[in-house]
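Changelog note: in this version the structure field was regenerated for every chain. One regenerated record is shown below for reference.
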Amino acid sequence: MKVIATIAQLRAALKSERQKGKSIGLVPTMGYLHVGHMALVHEAKRVCDITVVSIFVNPTQFGPNEDLAAYPRDMKGDLAKLEAEGVEYVFTPEVAEIYRPGAHTIVDNPLLSRILIGKIRPGHFRGVTTVVTKLFNIVQPDHAFFGEKDYQQLTIIRRMVADLDMPIEITGVATVRENDGLACSSRNAMLRPEDRKASVVLAKSLAKAEQLVKDGQRSVPAIRNAVRAVLETEKRGDIESVDIRDATTLDPVSGKFKQPVVVLLTVRFGKVRLIDQQVIG
């Protein structure tokens, strides 16, 4: 496994692989890797000849009062996990390597980036799409792999790739959950023990939505109210949003739905914001 910190060195290494006819898969991460990240790595290795994992805590997707400084990091542990999985390249740039002095160009979707999480975290998805575009330009992958837990992010990236005619296949990988149902996230490590125990309520509320659909319920207000009612049973959680949107476009859905929809949750426990999702219908 080669660990590379500069754009020039990574491009040179991947040029050689490409000349050999090798397909390249990219797994963008911010590090502090967990089993959810490793599921992305497994899929990349299954599909592609060469797997590149980037580890970069991107400052432009954090707001001024958010948890950039507190975001967990474990480069030594991350590299050990990736080497054990047989990853060929790990890209570990410093901030100055990605955002050089005088660089002001951004990539933004003015519609999808300003709804849902984008409304709660202004500028977040602009930072995501800008850094992902840069990583795509640096690595030039054939495939890129993202978790479905970050559903809005995945939708925005798919839209960006289509809109900008990027020759990259985007693969969404199913959410990996801990034994009690909580979606795996690097932020779980930041939860206090009592909040970690309480956070399972997100998975319980999504299970309620699934059961209602199995029982024949198709009313958006009824499902939303039932999900919120489950979340409200846990007083430690501060509910920021419960949304039901079209599973493909994220357009609002009202009344009774016929197409698949996605339930999107945002709940804070102390200073830690957790998100989760489930496609139903």
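Spot check on this record: The beta strands are 2-4, 24-29, 50-55, 89-91, 143-147, 169-173, 237-246, 261-269, 272-280. The mean pLDDT is 97.
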